[in-house]
Amino acid sequence: MEKVWDPLRRKDVALTPEERVRQWFISLLRDSLGVPVHQMMSEVGLQYGAGKVYRADIVVYARGGHPLAIVECKRPEVTLSQATFEQALRYDMVLGVPFIFVTNGHSTFVARRAGEGYEFLKKIPTYVEMSGYGDKGTE
Length: 139
What we know:
Strand content: 35-45%
Order of helices and strands: EEHEEEHEEEH
Helix content: 25-40%
Low-confidence stretches: 135-139
Number of helices: 3
Radius of gyration: 14 Å
Number of strands: 8
Structural class: alpha+beta
Shape: globular
Largest sheet: 6 strands, mixed
Distance between the termini: 46 Å
């Protein structure tokens, strides 16, 4: 199987359709949105209570080390739905981030915490914008 270098895990990984989307989004975060590579992690293990261990595709961290965003990547043929967003919300129950991204490489949705819920944004915020919001905490 073809492999690709993952700059976050610092190793070659199998280039599955989902991995292709993950690597594209890592590049977008780094090159277009200004997220430093050392402020991202991929395949982050999360456990809610004594239950199942989940893996967040990408987590973006603030300079102080607290999580700012969760990114859930899907294969390109997967239609993004409420269920996809709810998967990312399960990860958020552990991390409590201000931003959630869901992408399949064709469509990307981003939501920002707004009170007890989330509001969908029309554009993806830069790292500086995310960091500024994260510094304020949840509003």
